């Protein structure tokens, strides 16, 4: 495991006495988010939400201009840029790391120029253009595994062995990063809970997190906040999945996750502080 995760203007300890799990807050600049119904779609609304997350103790704000919920429709590049670039400019000096949640190389390039510290790609930088867009920068990278695409990923996902296939995917991607000269200290990995996976797949992945980290030697990001897997376990609708989301996040930390991508920042920060104090 690397000692640090280099993320643009920020360097985060990944082990040792200075380590604390990172909380990444979700900021959806979209009209069709599954969790917040587009309430932060306006620039002022998004800025206010970001300011609240900063007060709540967020480490990274993940800005997205295209929903990745199951069944989500494609957003043209120009539309996505119009949603996220003004927000990045407004927040780039806010004091916490900014991430852009996109798989489009054109958006990656513009977001890096605007001042983001990290690129979070749900397609795992699967295109040469995406790798080229980030290779000469110093931003942190999160490569996520997804089977198929948001439009159809939850239509009967199937694997021979979900964990071995995800592990192979990450190994191939890291080899491509190496060829592009991307320092692995800039990279974290997300197995993609709920992205082309059933509840059974998600459970198997959670149990396998220590092996991902042992085999790959890189920090793991886990995003389970409010997802359908929490609904399946608890029987609760999206707006009542906080307790389940926090429980799953703490299980992920116990399994070795280093970053948590969440909707409920204040509650997660408190849970992480308590977990750190009582488990050390």
UniProtKB/TrEMBL annotation:
CDD domains: DHPS
Cofactor(s) listed: Mg(2+)
Record-annotated Pterin-binding domain positions: 21-273
Record-level GO cellular component terms: cytosol
Domain of life of the source: Bacteria
Pfam families per record: Pterin_bind
Coiled coil: none
PROSITE patterns assigned to the protein according to its UniProt record, in alphabetical order: DHPS_1, DHPS_2, PTERIN_BINDING
Keyword tags: Folate biosynthesis, Magnesium, Metal-binding, Transferase
Gene Ontology biological process terms in this record: folic acid biosynthetic process; tetrahydrofolate biosynthetic process
EC numbers, comma separated: 2.5.1.15
Single annotated GO MF: metal ion binding
Protein's pathway: Cofactor biosynthesis; tetrahydrofolate biosynthesis; 7,8-dihydrofolate from 2-amino-4-hydroxy-6-hydroxymethyl-7,8-dihydropteridine diphosphate and 4-aminobenzoate: step 1/2
Reactions catalysed: (7,8-dihydropterin-6-yl)methyl diphosphate + 4-aminobenzoate = 7,8-dihydropteroate + diphosphate
SUPFAM superfamilies to which the protein is assigned, alphabetical: Dihydropteroate synthetase-like (SSF51717)
Role, per record: Catalyzes the condensation of para-aminobenzoate (pABA) with 6-hydroxymethyl-7,8-dihydropterin diphosphate (DHPt-PP) to form 7,8-dihydropteroate (H2Pte), the immediate precursor of folate derivatives.
Homology family: Belongs to the DHPS family.
Protein name per UniProt: Dihydropteroate synthase
Organism, scientific name: Undibacterium piscinae
Source species taxonomy: Bacteria, Pseudomonadati, Pseudomonadota, Betaproteobacteria, Burkholderiales
């Amino acid at each position: 495991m690397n000692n640090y995760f280099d993320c643009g203007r920020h360097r985060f300890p990944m082990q040792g006495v200075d380590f604390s799990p990172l909380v990444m807050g979700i900021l959806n600049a979209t009209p069709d988010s599954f969790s917040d119904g587009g309430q932060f779609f306006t620039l002022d609304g998004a800025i206010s939400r970001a300011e609240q997350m900063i007060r709540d103790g967020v480490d990274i704000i993940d800005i997205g201009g295209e929903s990745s919920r199951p069944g989500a429709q494609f957003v043209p590049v120009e539309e996505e840029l119009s949603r996220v670039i003004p927000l990045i400019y407004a927040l780039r000096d806010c004091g916490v790391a900014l991430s852009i949640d996109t798989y489009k190389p054109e958006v990656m390039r513009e977001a890096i120029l605007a001042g983001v510290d990290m690129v979070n790609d749900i397609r795992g930088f699967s295109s040469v253009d995406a790798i080229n867009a980030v290779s000469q920068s110093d931003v942190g990278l999160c490569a996520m595994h997804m089977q198929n695409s948001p439009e159809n990923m939850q239509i009967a996902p199937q694997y021979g062995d979900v964990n071995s296939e995800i592990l192979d995917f990450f190994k191939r991607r890291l080899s491509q990063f190496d060829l592009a000269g991307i320092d692995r200290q800039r990279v974290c990995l997300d197995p993609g809970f709920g992205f082309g996976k059933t509840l059974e797949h998600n459970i198997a992945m959670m149990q396998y997190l220590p092996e991902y980290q042992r085999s790959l030697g890189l920090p793991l990001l886990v995003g389970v906040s409010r997802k359908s897997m929490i609904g399946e376990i608890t029987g609760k609708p999206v707006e009542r999945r906080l307790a389940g989301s926090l429980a799953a996040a703490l299980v992920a930390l116990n399994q070795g996750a280093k970053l948590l991508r969440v909707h409920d920042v204040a509650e997660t920060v408190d849970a992480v502080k308590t977990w750190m104090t009582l488990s050390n």
